[in-house]
């Protein structure tokens, strides 16, 4: 349920401080660069962000080219801040307070889905059911998962509130992700791995449907 999910108890300021911590994490910076890279590669028109948090990467949207940009998050305060930051610059932005692990609601027919560091917190099967209801016949989905490489699931950055998500965090194997994606008709079209300062790495997988 939304009200019991620990993500609803983590202030956006804490989350962003944790993600931007340069010595140990630097995850926000890497994700921002990846968003820029894949938006430029595919030039999508109807875009869905799963777990949009504070809107990291929305500054790379070309407001003259995109038709719809939908962002989903379980934390309404994150969405409120994203709206403050970007709605004036990106009139196509629509935000939804949803839990993709418990929703099959259709909000967009997307040709591009960005899903970074969200599958560690939701059921793969349920998440792909949601995705299936929100894509058009030919769509790209970019998924980034975390490989701990022997490190703890949540990096030590001095931000205490972020530690609460350890209880729902689960490691997602690349094999399981590819297998589930295949069941829903997605084919792997590319991949890359980026190592973070703390020894963890991000594995980014490109899938194509259609």
TrEMBL record:
Q: Which domain of life is it from?
A: Bacteria
Q: Which InterPro entries match?
A: SAM-dependent_MTases_sf (IPR029063)
- Name the chain's protein: Methyltransferase domain-containing protein
Task: Identify the species of origin.
Answer: Chryseobacterium kimseyorum
